[in-house]
Amino acid sequence: MHKEKLIFLDFDGVLHPTHFAGESPFSRAALLEESFNLLSPKIVISSSWRFTHNLEKLQKTLPTFISSLIIGATGAAVIGKHPRFTEIQNYLQSYGPADWRALDDSYWEFPNPCPRLIRCNPNTGITDRQILELNQWLIQG
15, 77, 114, 132: most buried, per Cβ within 10 A? Predict the structure, then answer.
C-alpha cells in the first residue's frame, strides 16, 4: 500500500519571489499546474500567510488548481531549531503517515540535510529545476 503524498507549501520565495515588487503574487503558481495535472497530491499550507489569513481566504486567493488540492494548514508557530520542519512533524502526528515534500525557500528551518525539502530560491520562487524534482517524486510508486 502506498502512502498518501502531501506537499507542504510555502508561498513567499516559492509561488513568487520573496520581494515581488512589480510582480503579481503567485506569479510562479502556474508552474505547478502541469505537475498537478499528472498526479494530484494533497496540499497543506505551511506558509506564514496562515497566521494572517484563514484557510477559506487562502483558498480564494490561490489559483483554483492549487486551491482544490488544499486539505489544511500546519498549526501554531514553533520557536526553536528547525521550526518549519517541526510544524510539519506536528501536523503529521495528527494526520497520520504520509509521503511528503516541502516546497520552501527557508532551508534554515529544516535539518541539514533534509531529503524531503525541495528548496526554492527566494529571489526567483519555484523554477523548472524544482518542478523536475517534484515530478520525479510524484511519479514514484
Answer: 15
